[in-house]
Amino acid sequence: MGAELAPFEFKQAVSILKSTGKKANCLDNLRGTISKISKESIFHHTCQYFLKEHVLGYTNDFAQWAGESLEERALAERLSNIDPFSFKSITGTRKELLRVINDYIKDFPEPRCALSGDEFYFNETVTLTFPVGIKVRNLVEFLVALRNVDPSCIYFHFYEARVRLGRGIDDFSSWFGNTLKRKNLAKKIRTIDPFMHNIDGIRTHIIEIIEENLMAEMEGLKT
Amino acid sequence: MINLYKYIVPPRDLLLIYRLCEKLKGKSFLHVNSTREGGGVAEILQRIIPLLKDLEIDARWEVVEGNKRFFDITKRIHNGLQGNKENITEEMWAYHYEVNRTNARQIDFNADAVLIHDPQPLPLIGFRKNRKNKQWLWRCHIDVSNPRPEIWNRVRKYVESYNAAIFSVAKFSKALPVDEFFITPSIDPLSDKNRDLSEQEISSVMKKFKIPLDKPIILQVSRFDKFKDPIGVIKAYRMVKKYNDCRLILAGSAAIDDPEGEEILNKVKDFAGNDPDVHILLLKPFSDKEINALQRVAVVVLQKSLKEGFGLTVSEAMWKEKPVIGGAVGGIPLQIIHGVTGFLVYSVDGAAFRIRQFLNNPDMALRMGKKGREYVKNNFLITRQIRDYLSVWYAKESKGKSVLEL
């Protein structure tokens, strides 16, 4: 008998919103505050954007504010293209946000300020993580669990794991590759664009990829 | 008792509540506000306290008592925090403090966490005895986005002595030297105000109020308060009436801590005149089933506030799958995703226009109503609020960590 594989334990993350007490009413203020605000706040406004139920027009809160409150669509597009998961730490994301804003200010005049009441509020979160009581040992069990777990489980393993826990990759592909030794499956999961879907969209994509993988295996095809 | 929510609320909320209660089991949690009846705070405390007890948290609820003068002053403070110009003299501030001192002698503050609701009992912080390992939290339910500075500065001095402040909406946050959390309020899906009602229950309420169901009903449920803009609602109804025959119901109850209510009610009655299709209902305290029935017969529900703490009547209506129209103030934009779960409006004309849209597009009204219920399920039910209160308490006890593993 071979050694028993380590099960995958589904965990969930619930975040409680907290104020930093800082706000910005114009692009210059925003830039100044981004340069010194807490890492938790940058994390919240970029990575935790995906916890929102309604996917908005852009891919992070800074872009959303630039587009909707300052009406600087070009800046909003540039900020939307920042991938916070491509950096090893929040410092990288912070530098990239500042670089994009600085470049924009060089090319364009400082935009008007946001209207009163429409300022950017810098928030952060306290995140509580806990196991949901589901452990799976193979791909079929994983599939059944994935169909039923709360969206915040998917957020925790697919998004949050990449940055806050310093792993760089998501928990799902990590388990597929390292424990189940399904390297191709892991690779396919890593090709999912995390910005182009809401959490339920991510769930659907992962389910499709696993089903395709299992079908191919049943049909005797190499996966 | 908490198990009754199992098939109604998102499982994640219950799971976290159970986990947190394992950590906080047996500890005591005191809530203090200024009224046992009327208004959203009293209403939710009536539900939260028994649920916390059921979860083996030693929860208590105390109410500060005061006379007309006290509540007149606290109403001025309330209005000033909402941006109204108010004259509050040094003598009034001193009286506010003294009434709290008298109340402090009667209240047993021996609890692991003390949650003080709104400005009326805010000075109680000055009378806390044992600071060690006790969390004193101030819960602000008011729209303090643009307070009168002279009033906020007085309030702020008290707030700075707390361990943390809790606001309903991020836009209400202030630069404070204490932690500030955001917790949205909630509704209880099993309360008389929100549970399913039989046809018979609904029709008996409508008979009691003598309101026929012969025309589409537009409804606003709220205290008779100028910030709820009841006159604006009547103006919007009159604009709609030119195109769609309908009835308007303005229903609200009086709260003991709101001395202005009667004056506003009389103004509203005068403005409505003798229109037989306008029904102004002054509801008795605990008229929850009546409000539930009114919301269920309404075709469109309004909350056309000019200032708003949160505006839970919006969530109540959404839970009943009603299309909603709300002023874009306070917590209303958190509940109404414009064009998805209802419409946000900025004027009387806007309200009239959106009412007409709903009356003439029942499919759209139905679609938004269904989306609204789902949105409330995920965000504004009582279990989520209990979860958040316990989370803040636990986070404060965990001394500033940003990730807590349970």
Backbone structural class of chain B: alpha/beta
Structural class of chain A: alpha+beta
How large is the count of helical segments of chain B? 14
- Residue share in β-strands of chain A: 15-25%
Q: What is the count of helical runs of chain A?
A: 10
**Contiguous runs where pLDDT drops below 50 for at least 5 residues of chain A:** none
Number of domains of chain B: 2
Under the CATH scheme, the architecture of the largest domain in chain B is 3-Layer(aba) Sandwich
The best one-word shape of chain A is elongated
* Helix percentage of chain A: 40-55%
Q: What brief labels describe this structure?
A:
heterodimer; A: 223 residues; alpha+beta; 2 domains; two-stranded antiparallel ribbon; 10 helices; 2 strands; 15% strand; elongated; B: 406 residues; alpha/beta; Rossmann fold; six-stranded parallel sheet; 13 strands; 16% strand
Describe this structure as you would to a colleague.
The complex is a heterodimer of chains A (223) and B (406). Chain A is of the alpha+beta class and 223 residues long. Chain A folds into two domains: 8-12 and 130-218, no CATH class; 14-124, no CATH class. Chain A has ten helices and two strands; from the N terminus they run βαααααβααααα. Chain A has helices at 27-36, 39-46, 61-68, 73-80, 90-107, 139-148, 151-163, 171-178, 183-190, 199-218; strands at 8-24, 120-136. In chain A, helix 1 runs antiparallel to helix 5 and helix 3 runs antiparallel to helix 4. With 406 residues, chain B is of the alpha/beta class. Chain B is 43% helix and 16% strand. In chain B, strand 7, helix 7 (230-241) and strand 8 (247-253) form a beta-alpha-beta unit. Chain B is globular and about 65 Å long. The mean pLDDT of chain B is 93. The interface between A and B is medium-sized, with 28 and 38 residues. Strand 2 of chain A pairs parallel with strand 13 (403-405) of chain B.
